[in-house]
Hints:
Layout: H1 7-31, H2 38-42, E1 57-61, E2 76-81, H3 84-90, E3 97-100, E4 115-119, H4 128-140, E5 161-167, E6 185-193, E7 204-212, H5 218-225, E8 229-235, E9 239-245, H6 249-252
Amino acid sequence: MSPPSESQEAEAYEERHVHQVYAQIASHFSSTRFKVTYLIIRLFPLSSLTQLPSGSIGLDVGCGNGKYLPVNPDIFILASDRSASLIEIASQHQPHASLVADNLLLPHPNASFDFAISIAVVHHMSTRGRRVQAIAAILKTLRPQTEPGQWRPGDDPHVGRALVYVWALEQKTSRRGWDEGDEQDVIVPWVMKSAASDLSSDQSRTFNRYYHLYRQGELEEDIAEAGGKIVESGYEKDNWWAIAIRPGKDEQDR
């Protein structure tokens, strides 16, 4: 399939194939999303949610039901999602804050946050320009690198770091079976069965969600295009991931 190219068309397409879908499946979707991604614990060292310094403040952009909010009680997370229904669920995770916000128009001050996570969100943007814009919006919120040169883990704990996590094209061993050479823009069905208490019906409803499947190296390209610097990247359970920082002004001007 080919996603729309014009901005207004892309926005309308995502409204139909992403936002409206999650508004309808929010409760059912949330009931299947309770396991914390392995990557958060093991592959985001020094800035993982479990190892951040006490008092760190960060963002969970596209937080869904807010399952990452309780991971570390010593940090504060401002969570946001485009779905009001999912934010209603996420708001139960006190003392963290949750609000409805568009990834492309984040209402946060620039250069203010210690970390940000974006788990399985950017791949719902239907054009490359919108995916790069979504990443750039996240990077702008991070505390920038203050010294030029190659950043290494442990150099500056005040440099904000972002974890971006997207579905991979290369997942031939998964039940989906996608692999290199397959179409990258796909529709993935979400099947919601009737409530068990409804004994008079065995019907189910299918909702079609849009995904862009990232090929190897594409996430790094989008982050670079968005103005970020890759710290580390890799592959984990049918997903590509990358940790990025926001370079200081001197390095951006080079």
